[in-house]
Each structure stands twice: as C-alpha cells, then as structure tokens.
Amino acid sequence: MAYLDNELFVTALTDSQSLYWLPEGPNGMIAVIDTKTVELKEKIDIKIRPFNIFAGKNGYLYVTSREPQKAYFNSYSRSTKEFMDSELVNNECLSEYNPTLDRIYAIPIDIMPIDYKVLNVDNGKFVSSYSSTYYDSYPLAEKFKISPDGKYLFNSSGVVFTCNENVNEDMKFAFTLDKKFTDIAFNMEENRFYTAVGGNQIYVYNYEDFSGIDTLSSTGEILKLFYVDGKLCALSRSANGRPMFEVIQKVKIKYGDVNKDGRINSTDIMYLKGYLLRNSAFNLDEYGLMAADVDGNGSVSSLDLTYLKRYILRRISDFPANKK
Ligand SMILES: [Ca+2]
Ligand SMILES: [Ca+2]
To answer: Regarding the domain with residue range 2-176, which homologous superfamily does it belong to in the CATH classification?
Structure first.
C-alpha cells in the first residue's frame, strides 16, 4: 500500500491460477483509491505478482515482487497507467523506497549472508544498482525501515546504516541499538523514534545521537507501531487474541514555547509576532502552532500573543490552555 496526493495505491493479484512465475507474467492490478471519497477511482493493470508498492517522485509507481530466485521490480506511470520499466533482481527481496534519494533499498533474503542492494530510479526507469559489502560483518535481519528524512536504514536486527547519494558513503555502519526490534516509528518533530522490542515493550530513542530516553509499554502484544498526528499508536493483540488499537503516548505540548527550544521567553514573542505579521521567516510548524495557541481555543491569534506577553511579564502564572 502506498499513498500520494490523496490517492491510495493497493496492489492485488487478479490471476489466482499463476502460482509460478510465467514468462508473460501473472496478472495483477493496482487499485487507485481516492482517500477523500474512499472510492475506487481507477485500476492499473500490472504483469507482476505484487508484493509491495511505492509511490515515487514525479508520479511513478514501483511495484516489487517476492519470488524465490527470480524477483522483478516493475514501474508504471500514474498518469498514463503505462508500464515503464522492469528490473530482474534475481533474488527474493524485501525493499523500501527512499523518497529523498529516489531509490529503492532491498535486502535479498535467499542468499546468505544478508546484504543490502540499491536500485537507483529516474522517472520510472531503473538506471543503476549496486550492493553493500558487509558480507557477514553485521547480523542483519530481513526487515528494515528508512527514516522519514531518508538518512538512515534501520535494520530490525538493531543495526543502523547510512543512506547517501555518494556510493562510498552509502550503507555505512552508523550505530547499533541495544535491542533488535519488530517495528519502528518516527517522531521527527521531537527528534525521537520508538521501537517495539517484543511483547508490549517500547523503547524510546533520541534521533540525533541514538541514545535511549525512556521505555513505554502497551496493553497488548504489539503488532505494529505508528506515529500519527502527535500520537504514538500501536496495533496490538490482547491476551485473548483480539486485535486492538492503542494510543500509547501523546505529545506533551509546552504551551508558550513557540520556537521549540524548551524555554518560554521573549524569543517566543518574536516568533509569534512574526507569525501573526505573516513574516515568512517565522513560519510555524504543526508543533509550533499548537504551542502558540496558549489560550487553547484552537486557533493562533493576537489574543495568544497578549497572554504570552503577560506570562513573560509574570502577570499570569499559567496559560489557559494548560487548564483545559
Ligand atoms: Ca522558546
Ligand atoms: Ca488561541
């Protein structure tokens, strides 16, 4: 499943007969779903047994298959629905798309030791590829995720590698986390990431230096971790086997700290003033906007600035938003 510009792309195999790879390829499709109406908008025919799909740059879709010995990666144009290119990867692969570098990182899993491979793409064409050279230096697992800024590969073995445009700097060892994980979620606003380490345990790390900050726990056994809209959530399984959706942690907003430096002072007045005057140098992000709404009425206005000034002048000791 992939998402881009209010469209959700879901792949399916339409030809259930083709259990084996055929020269002409099995019949599959990409269903394009409009996320606003939740209706099926279009279908794109694909000749591949789909395993994963990525929405890449400039409207190209990359569909991967996962077959022993002969896996293909295909690309399609979203606008014309045309088949663009195909790459034989020769091994069963698990892969992730790096949106910053416009390339696919894959781990061929049927050859040992496990190693990373890169496929560079350019407007739907597979242009080049190369492999890393770890051999057996690191105990890699087949599952991995790329950080939202495209800078790191987080292998579920706990080993972190770099992603870099430059071949010599790419897929280099960066860090080893103290525990392997089953899933990972990123909170880039607060420079944090969370790993599900088995059972109901979650480790919280600092994204800048990979240091451990905290541990959290869920009620059920975690199947998947998400970070959405300032909330850490988990899809988990309860003791009696039922799936549950849990909110593990919400971001604690420090009201008044508009520039997110941890302090509430005249700099925050400057930021809020700049924002209210529509000065582009003071564009506030999602967190900044929440922190600026010190009266907690749901919008940022000059009234919030008045409260902030009064707080800094110690005329008030707290913000209305903290009492809500
Ligand atoms: Ca501040
Ligand atoms: Ca307000």
So the answer is: YVTN repeat-like/Quinoprotein amine dehydrogenase (2.130.10.10)
